[in-house]
Amino acid sequence: MADAEAPGPRERLARVRPGATVLVLLAALAALSSFATNIILPAFPAIGSAIGVTTLELGVTLSSFFVAFALGQLVVGPLSDRFGRRPVVLGGLLIFFAGSVLAASASGIGMLVAARIVQAIGVCAASVLSRAIARDLFEGQDLARALSFTTVATAAASGFSPLLGMAIDGLLGWRAMFLLVGAAGLGLAIAYRLLVSETLRPGDRAPISVAGVASDYAALIADLRFLAPALTVSLIIGGLFAFFAAAPAVLIDGFRIGAFGLSVFFAATVVVVFSGGLLAPWFARRLGQARATSRGALIAFTGSALVLASVAAGLPLIWFTLALTVFLFGMGLANPLGTALALQPFGDRAGIASALLGFLQMSCAALATTAATYLPLDPAASIALVLTVATAIALLIFRRLASPA
């Protein structure tokens, strides 16, 4: 009897989807980790000076963040499938707030790395569940559009946060940045608590056990419907995060554009990713999601190869920027469509599927960041090589495993 009275999918969607409000909050959840990472990039020289390390050595604060973020998602996804999205999102945001306060008081590289790990453990819930909640609420083209919107928001956070970080560093110092991102997480938790109801009804919740979760993850890894688009997106995103990590060394130390120039550079990237994200649903309608994702991966690889060629030829910053623009457009196109392809068939396991996708993304980000940091090349050559290899593998995987028509 209880099952008969439970609301069906259409009734549930009508009750929990208040249009723009949910989309904006999902976008904010998805963008928070990028906001927390990119806002500190212009302050790397100041942070390094304060705690006694070089700008390049501060890359460990990013790679450690990515590793913790990746592993945390493997736990967050199953927990949300068992207990619902809201408690996991809210708990994660409170942990993120605590990590931000700890980072603001850091006196050495060890403490700062530990604080970034706490931040990552908390904010990974927001990132994973923004996708899982979108999958709870949307299907097909609607899901692709929702994920395109979150891609645009993440790009905006990534692009404009360095400008904000530079201003805060100049006025209040780098420690204030961490307090600001902590306040952003706390404010988002309050807004989510007040404005969004649970999207996973009790009847849809899955029991949790170590063996069961491991079996679900293994089944996803073995399913090419998930694996091909998930690896494609993850490798491209990994290259992007590696560029973020290397950007201060490449642009400030290499091209000598200064902290303000770095901030403007990041802000300009928003327009490119914004364009890719907005055009992604249009490409999907005309070509189908698989073919459109393949085109995006091809564009990203072309841009990466052009970045490598510009660095090898010693060309000025304008050519590096134009080549990177091609990569960013391809990323903005492939990311939401590939994510939708990976999640679409697994609505009954949206939390676990989103968690595994996030794990793959952050694992690729950690590997790419580590490679870009420790390759025996100058920073520009390192990031150009990492981008090219990552996007080449992504394109090959998608075309061989997904077989878009």
Give structural notes.
This protein is mainly alpha-helical and 405 residues long. It contains 16 helices and no strands. It is globular. The termini are far apart. Mean pLDDT is 83; it is low at 1-18.
Pick out its properties.
mainly alpha; disordered N terminus; 405 residues; 84% helix; globular
Q: Gist?
A:
This protein is mostly helical. It contains 16 helices and no strands.
Residues in helices, as a percent range: over 70%
Distance between the termini: 46 Å
Secondary structure: number of strands:
0
Strand count, sense and barrel status of the largest sheet are: none
- Mass-distribution shape: globular
Poorly predicted runs of 5 or more residues: 1-18
Q: Bin the strand percentage.
A: under 5%
Order of helices and strands: HHHHHHHHHHHHHHHH
The assigned structural class equals mainly alpha
Mean pLDDT, nearest integer? 83
Radius of gyration: 20 Å
Question: Tally the helices: what do you get?
Answer: 16
Topology:
Blueprint: H1 2-5, H2 9-16, H3 20-38, H4 44-51, H5 59-83, H6 85-104, H7 109-137, H8 140-172, H9 174-195, H10 210-222, H11 224-254, H12 258-287, H13 289-312, H14 317-343, H15 350-374, H16 379-402
Helix pairs in contact: 3-7, 3-8, 3-9, 5-6, 5-7, 5-15, 6-7, 6-9, 7-8, 7-15, 8-9, 8-12, 8-14, 11-12, 11-14, 11-15, 11-16, 12-13, 12-14, 13-14, 13-16, 15-16
